Amino acid sequence: MNIKLPEDFISRMRLQLGDELTAFLHALEEPPVRGIRMNPLKVTDSIKSLTEDGRVPWAKDGYYLALDSNAGSMILHETGAFYIQEPGAMLPAAVLAARPGEKVLDLCAAPGGKSTQIGCGMKGEGLLVCNEPVPKRAAILSSNIERMGLPNTVVTCAKPDQLAKQWPEGFDAVMVDAPCSGEGMFRRDPETRNEWTQDKADGCAERQQEILSAAAGLVRPGGRLVYSTCTYNPRENEENARWFTAQFPEFSLQAFTLPGIDAPEGMFTCYPHRLKGEGQFAALFRKAGDGEAVLPEDRSMPVPSKNDSAVFAGAFPDLPRATHLFGNTMISIPKLPDLKGIRTLRIGLHLGEVRGKNAFPDHAAALCFRTPAMQTYDMKPEEVVRFLSGETIKSSLEGWTLMRYNSLAAGWGKGSGGMIKNHYPKGLRGLHYLP
Ligand SMILES: C[S@@+](CC[C@H](N)C(=O)[O-])C[C@H]1O[C@@H](n2cnc3c(N)ncnc32)[C@H](O)[C@@H]1O
Predict the structure, then answer these.
(1) What is the whole-number distance in angstroms between the Cα of residue 108 and the centre of ligand 1?
(2) Half-sphere exposure of 350 (CA within 13 A, CB side)
(3) pLDDT value at position 43?
(4) Looking at residue 372, what is its pLDDT?
(5) How does strand 103-106 pair with strand 153-156?
(6) Keywords of this protein's UniProt record, alphabetized (predicted)?
(7) What residues does 254 pair with on adjacent strands?
(8) Cα gap 166→274, rounded to integer Å
(9) Which numbered atom of ligand 1 lies nearest the CA of 109?
(10) pLDDT value at residue 370
(11) Which residues line ligand 1 (CB under 6 A)?
């Protein structure tokens, strides 16, 4: 790795770390640390071949991952058995500690590392709104939410101030994992060293203040806010955290501890020479008072006709009942927040469609299925590789079939005349999956 660190960055880190600078610079030239988070909604036992590098102390279900692991190409990745995330990045959601039944907003959510960690902690109960203002990134976020099988999740694509107007004090907990100067990426992605300038970092600090200002209004009295970045820059981190409590005195920093982490002042930075992970900062705030998170319900969204509901429930009796129609898709969400005027990509669990007399299940519904009473087909490794590339599978089964691998659903197939026709989404098909 021959890309030099910017001189201004080194000078600032000297002031920041003093005697530790040499150890820090040395650590930046070491190989990066990788990690993986098992999906507790799908996997009950850890997957031995992927978890033998040991646990990440501060993150439930987090493990270190060998540098040369090809976990991202594995079929188990496609079935949502795990999410690849470097260990430092697992800290902010661990600090937020979202609980089942809460209303939680992840304001800067793509590609979904923190969102999926939060969603797993909520065990599919309550409401998780994942927002990403950049449309292409929001689509990736939505697909990761689907893959991990998280129901009760809404994916929006909006600016934070629009959400602040729509949902004042609507959430028990808000995550602000803000866009930043990315110094914590210098080891994992050395190219980022070339893009860094002090001016850019200053620009990030201003944008972070705008996002935090919007976030303040979204938290209910007594609720929590976690602010995080993947940079070491105090202007974006500690100074912004203190700026926030000065601007919004109803918020105060809260001490937190997690295994291997002690933050008596409510702020913590992962430095690679101190902890096994890449750079990450997290601050925990609590809003004064005590109040309920109230999200106005949307009563204008269409509901499926009785006939269509009956057709769908008849074909898929084990799926939850459809509560609304999102375009042509039947969805299930216990309480629908008011989404009028907000660009929305995903609402709750997408069940499927009814066309005429026929019901067609959605891919998301397959990935959310936990204990199917319906027809399943357990694929062998060579079959699942073919299934994920769009091929048919030989079988005498008839009708809709949940296609599984290692007890986890990979998608839908429909059996007819000795073949199971492939309903794995065209956009996800690929040839390079590994058993
Ligand atoms: C650090 S990344 C988030 C990573 C994500 N939380 C995860 O764990 O996978 C910051 C995200 O904020 C988005 N973003 C950019 N400008 C924003 C804004 N003004 N408000 C909210 N999010 C913004 C970026 O597009 C980017 O996806």
Answers:
(1) 4
(2) 23
(3) 82
(4) 62
(5) unpaired
(6) Methyltransferase, Transferase
(7) none
(8) 42
(9) 6
(10) 67
(11) 89, 107-114, 132-134, 137, 160, 177, 179, 207, 211
In 106-145, which positions are buried (b, 16+ CB within 10 angstroms) versus exposed (e)? bbbbbbbbbbbbbbbbbebebbbbbbbbeeebbbebbbbb
Look up residue 180 and give its amino acid: C
Largest CA distance in the chain: 73
Query: Which atom of ligand 1 has the smallest separation from the CA of 211?
Result: 20
User: What is the C-alpha separation between 167 and 48, in angstroms, rounded?
Assistant: 43
Assess whether 368 carries a catalytic annotation: no
Q: How far is the CA of 180 from the centre of ligand 1 (A)?
A: 9
Protein fold of 7-287: Rossmann fold (3.40.50)
Interatomic CA distance for residues 353 and 361, integer angstroms? 7
Tell me whether the omega of the peptide bond preceding residue 272 falls within 30 degrees of 0, making it cis.
no
Q: Look-up: residue for tokens 């699942």?
A: 384
Matching CATH number, 371-435, of 3.40.1000.10, 2.30.130.60, 2.30.42.10, 3.90.226.10:
2.30.130.60
Residue 390 and residue 413: Cα distance in Å, rounded?
10
Any idea where the domains of the chain sit in the sequence?
7-287, 371-435
**CA separation, residue 46 to residues 39, 40, 41, 43 (Å):** 9, 9, 12, 7
Instruction: Kindly report the protein residue whose alpha carbon is nearest to atom 22 of ligand 1.
Output: 108
Instruction: Give the integer Cα–Cα distance in Å for 315 and 78.
Output: 25
